[in-house]
C-alpha cells in the first residue's frame, strides 16, 4: 500500500508538470526555455515525489487523524508549488499583491495547525503536534535573507514531539519510527533545496509580466465571491418619511426651527382637567392604547470599528527590552543582555522569543501561542493573561509565576529543578522535568484543591479530578 500511494503521488506530480507546460504554451515557449523555471520547480517536484510522498504513504498506513493531517500537508505543498510556478514565470509584484499570492499557503498552514487544536484528545496527538509545530516552515517563501535557517528553526520546534513518538513506538511499531524519519527528512531536504535555489529568499523571474494576485487559480479554495451589486439609489429627500409621495417643504421646516422660543406659540394650552395623570377618570374613557410601532425606534448602534493594528516592537528602552505586537515572528532573539535588564513581552502571538545571557526578569503579558527560551534569570518569570504558551529554561531560574493563564508548558533544565512555580486562576499547566536519558517527563500542575477545617486552621491540599 505504501508503494502504491507513493506511485500515485508521483503520477500526480507528473500530471501537474504536464498541465504547467500546456498552460505556458507547450515545451517550446519562452517560459519553458527559462532555466530558472525548469530547474527549481522540477527540483521541488522531486521533494514532493520523494520524502513528502513517503510521509503521506506511511500516514495512510497509520490511518486516522495522522492520515487526515497528511492530506492537509499535501495540499499545503501543492499550494506552495503553485506559488513557485508563478514566481518562476513572473517578476516580483508589489507587497500587497505578494500578500495575496502568499494567502493560499498561509491558509493551508493555519488549517494544519487548527486540526491539531481541534483534536487534542486524539491518540496520535504527538504526531499531530510534531506536524503542527513545524508546518510554519512553509512560510520560508516570505523570509529574507535567511529562509534556510528559518526552516531549520521550525524543524527543531517539532523535535520534542517527534522524540515522544519515537519513545512511545520504538519498541511497539517500527512504522511510526519510519514515519518520524520520513517527516523529518522533508524539512532536511527542503533546507538543501532552499540553499541551492533560493539562498537569500524566493527567486523571481527577471523577465515576464509582474505577478498579480489573480494570475493563477485558487489553490484548493472556494471560488471568488461575485462582484458586489449596484449601490442602492440615493435617498430622495423630496419624499416624506411616512411613505407618501407628496413633497416635504424643507424650507418651511427649517424656518419653523429657526423661530427658537417662538416655535411654541402655536401650541394649544392643556388645562389640568384635561391631563390624564391629574385626572384618572380620563384613562378609563380613553380605552386601551392601540397596538403598533412605538413612536420612537431605538437608534441602531454603529458598526464596531476594526481594531487598529499596532506596529511590532523589539527595542531596549532604558533597562527594559520591549517585545510587543508580533504576529507569526518565529525568530525573535535578544542577545546583548545585562544582569540589570528585564524583558517585557506584550501581545505576541504565534511567535518564538529567545533571550540569551543572564537577565533580571521576564514578563509575558497577553500572549498567545508564544514560545520562550532563555538562559538564566536571577529574579522571576511571570506569565500573565496568556494562552497556550511554552517556557523553556536552559540554565537557572528561582521562581516562575503563572497567573490568569490557560495552557502553559514549563520545560525545566537540570539546573533549575529547585525552581518554585506559583500559580493562580490558571488551567492546563504542565511542568516537564528532564530524565537521565535526555527525555522529559510531563507532570500536570494541580488545578483543584480541597480545604478543611482541622479545629484551629484551614488546611488546603491538592486533589485529582475523579474519573
Tell me what you see in this structure.
The protein is of the alpha/beta class and 467 residues long. It folds into two domains: 2-197, Adenylate cyclase-associated CAP, N-terminal domain (Serine Threonine Protein Phosphatase 5, Tetratricopeptide repeat), CATH 1.25.40; 313-463, Pectate Lyase C-like. It is built from eleven helices and 16 strands. A seven-stranded mixed beta sheet has the order 1-2-4-6-8-10-12, with no helix packed on it. A hairpin with a 5-residue loop joins strand 13 and strand 14. Helix 1 runs antiparallel to helix 3, helix 3 packs antiparallel against helix 4 (64-89) and helix 4 (64-89) runs antiparallel to helix 5. It is globular, with a radius of gyration of 32 Å.
Task: Reconstruct the topology from this structure.
Layout (H helix, E strand, L loop, with lengths): L1 H22 L6 H4 L1 H28 L1 H26 L5 H24 L6 H10 L12 H11 L1 H11 L4 H24 L52 H8 L23 H6 L26 E5 L2 E5 L7 E3 L7 E5 L2 E11 L1 E5 L2 E10 L2 E5 L2 E7 L5 E5 L2 E6 L8 E5 L2 E8 L5 E5 L3 E6 L4 E6 L4
Helix pairs in contact: 1-3, 3-4, 3-9, 4-5, 5-6, 6-8, 7-9, 8-9
Q: How many separate structural domains? A: 2
At CATH level 3, the topology of the largest domain is Serine Threonine Protein Phosphatase 5, Tetratricopeptide repeat
State the distance separating the first and last CA atoms: 40 Å
Which oligomeric state applies?
single chain
Count of helices? 11
Q: CATH-wise, what's the superfamily of the largest domain? A: Adenylate cyclase-associated CAP, N-terminal domain
Q: Summarize model confidence as the mean pLDDT.
A: 79
State the helicity in percent bands: 25-40%
Uncertain ranges: 20-36, 221-248, 289-305
Q: What is the structural class?
A: alpha/beta
Secondary-structure element order, N to C: HHHHHHHHHHHEEEEEEEEEEEEEEEE
The assigned CATH architecture of the largest domain is: Alpha Horseshoe
What can be said about the biggest beta sheet? 7 strands, mixed
Gyration radius over CA: 32 Å
Give the amount of beta strand, in percent. Answer: 15-25%
Task: Identify the strand order in the major beta sheet.
Answer: 1-2-4-6-8-10-12
Counting DSSP E segments of at least 2 residues, the number of strands comes to: 16
Instruction: Indicate the CATH class of the largest domain.
Output: Mainly Alpha
Instruction: Please tell me what the overall shape is.
Output: globular
